[in-house]
Structure formats: C-alpha cells, structure tokens
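Hi F.,

I've been meaning to write this up properly since the lab meeting, where we talked about keeping a consistent format for the predictions we share between groups. The idea is simple: the sequence comes first, exactly as it goes in, then the structure tokens exactly as they come out, then a line or two of notes. No screenshots and no reformatting. I'm using this chain as the first example so we have something concrete to point to.
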Amino acid sequence: MMRSMYSGVSGLRVHQTKMDVISNNIANINTVGFKRATASFKESFNQTLSSASSANQDRGGINPQQIGMGANVGTIVNVMGQGAAQRTDYGSDLMIDGDGFFIVKDASGFSFTRAGVFEVDAKGNLVDPNGFNVCGWKAVEDPDKPGQQKIIKDTVTPINIYDGDNLYSPAQKTTSIEFTGNFNQTTNKEQKNTMSFYDSQGNKYVMNIQFTKNDKFVPQPPAQNSSWDISLPGVTLPGGQAPGQGVAPTHYELTVNGTDKVYLPVGNLNLQGLSLIFGQDGKLTSVNGNNANGTGFTLPDINLGNLLKDNGTANGTQAGITAETLSGINIDFAKVTQFNSKANVTSEAKDGNTAGSMTGYSIDANGIIRGTYSNGQTKLLAQIPLANFKNPAGLEKAGSNLYKETGNSSEFDGIGVEASALGSKLQGGALEMSNVDLSYEFSEMITTQRGFQANSRIITTSDEMIQELVNMKR
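Output, unedited:
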C-alpha cells in the first residue's frame, strides 16, 4: 500500500520539475540568445517479486514479476536550435546565424554566449552587458604589404577598437596615377589635364599635364598612327601656392613676413621626348621616351621645398630649403584611347591620402572589424571568431546568458574559428531571439498539469485505501 503512495509522490516530484523547466522557458521567451530546455523522465528501480525461469520438458517459461517504485528525472536538455532575428539597427549588436558561440572573458577565464548585445566602453574595449571582454584576433602590420594589416589567427585576446594604434590613419604618398578616357583623333588642339597626388606627409599637390599632338611624327612603317607629346607646365602646392613653371630658377628674391611659409620648386620636371604612340585601332601601343616602359612611365623625382626664413630683415639674407622628394610615381596610360570622339581624358591617383582620425567602425558577416577614417580610408582592426563545440548541449549554463565548457561539451582550444568555417555568418544590427515556442510550451504545460493531477490522485486513493483498512476494526 505504501509503495503506491511513494510512487505517486515521485510522480509529483518529476512533474513539478518539468513544470519548473517549462516555466523557466516561458519566463525567458524574450531573453536574447536564450535556448529552451526540455525535461524527460525515466522509471525508478523495480522490486522483483519473482525472477524469470526458462522453459523445460515439464513446463513453459515464466516471466519475471516486478513492481516499479516510481519515476525520476531522466534528462534536462538544452535545445540549441536557431532563434529568430530581431532587428535593432545598433551597430555593435551581433547575431550568429548558424553554429558557434561568441567568446568572452573575465578574470575567471573564458565564457561563451549567443547573446551579441555588445558595447564599446570608455577605454575602447568591446564588452557584453556583464562587463566581460569580447575576445578575438588582432590585426598586425603585414610585412609583405607595407601600410596594410592582416589578421593573426592565434590565441584570442580582448578586442579594443579604440586602441591607440587604431585611432588614426597615417598619411601615405601616391605611388600610382592612372589615366583613362579618349584623345580626339582629328583635333590638333592641346589637351590639358591635371594630376592630383600626395606626399608622405599627406600634403596634396596638383600637377598640370599638357598633351600636344605631334604632327611631325612619322611612324615606321607609315600608317594612320599618331603621337602626343607630354609636358608638365607646373605644380600647385598645398594651400594653392604655385611654385613656378617646371624648372626652378637659380635665384629668388623674396620678402618673407611673420611666419609665412614659401614653397619653392627645387627640382626639374623635364619630360622632353616623352610621347604617347597610338595605333590604327585607336589603342595605345607604347609610351616612347625617357623612363618609359610599356604603356606607362615613372614620373621624375620632384623636390618641393619649404623656405627656412632667416631671422635677419635685410633682403639678400641667405636662407635654407627643406625639401620633400616625391619619387617613384608610376603614370599608367593603358586605358587611354584615340578615336574620333569627344576628348575626355581624366586621371585618378590609385593610392595616397592625407592623415585622418577614426569616425566609426563596421563588422562584416565573417566578424572582421574595420575602422573608418575622416580621410576616406578604412583599416583592418580585428576579427571576432566563434567557439565551436562537438556537443553544444553539454555546455553548462552559468547565468547572464553565459555558458561554461564541461567534460561532455569538448574543450575550447583558446583560438576559435571564423564564422565562415562553420557555415555561419554574423549579422550586424540584429540580435538572436529566444528559441522558445510558446504554443509548444503551453501544450507541455497541459500534459504536465494532468500528469501532476493524476499522481495526486494516486496519493489520495492510497490514503482512502489505508483509511478503509484502519476502519476495518471498530
């Protein structure tokens, strides 16, 4: 009689535990990155009244006789299915679409989360709402590509977006200028253009370039080819100052007042003998002349100086000049043509820029963080990798949307993998919602309630039976 009562009690306990799991799921229906749990039962031990026996010549086999002693909780499993996306339009919010976990760290070590509610703190650290540092791979200078960065996939460390090295984009000098467009085949007019470029200090220069059709050019063999001679009339310096017409004179007489800066050309811009040779099909065949190679040439060194004013006041006082040398600028004419159509030759510097300060950052689908700068440049800063586990359901919930590794989840290697390697991607400006299905939870709640009621009836019925037994003697 008492067995049935205790079986009923065990039934109440397991159904109460399942109700606790369901209620926690519903309570976290709007918790970012929450993963619902399910509870299942298993029978408790059994009392064997008689064992089984095999058949023999005289009688058949007999099955064992056992009475169960109730139920226990079998499993409480975290269901790691994908949650729906919630758009926030907040730049540092991130959602994992696929497998993997964000890696965060505090003094106690690494933790893992699906909740990408991140902020940048006062020191530039990317952190979660608990103040844990979001970890990733840092970008370093690429030794094979000066001025560029690359990601080192090593042990993850806290990401600092506004690290001192990330706050500014350095000035870079121009090394390549590309011309595109068309020269009018029928005109004999000079065609003028400009080239803009930067020195290593980020100062911008505008150089005038002039193309003059060479009527004396005789191709070998004679055909409908033509040639355009190139000359450089002058350079405009920072602030709009004009230094002269190409070749610096040997003598200047200047009056310098206060702290004025006077820019002087101290080099030779001679391109004598340099011509563009076009074929019958209107396409550039070669650049013919000094320093020419294929369809381009290297601009001669340009020394542009800043006059060092003497403290004397008399005219004729000697002064020195500090010069910035612009060298190695390759001029490419490969995309220039000569047809009987409108002349529209333009130039574009393929590199070079002024110095700039950080204005923001962006995070792409593979977790790569790039800084944006006031000079229009971008810079690779870091990458957010993901932690991957062989058995994600084996992770232990640590509260505050965090998980800890266990012996049954597999071990975190300290490095992680990029999202694309897992077939996952990160979505900026979005968060992963809870994967709780309210209709499913309500269905589970109904069956759990009925199970609890049925087990309570076992107890009341057993109590009535005991009462009847007690009442047999009056």
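Notes:
The longest strand covers residues 226-236.
Helices lie at 2-27, 438-471.

If this format works for you, I'll send the rest the same way.

G.
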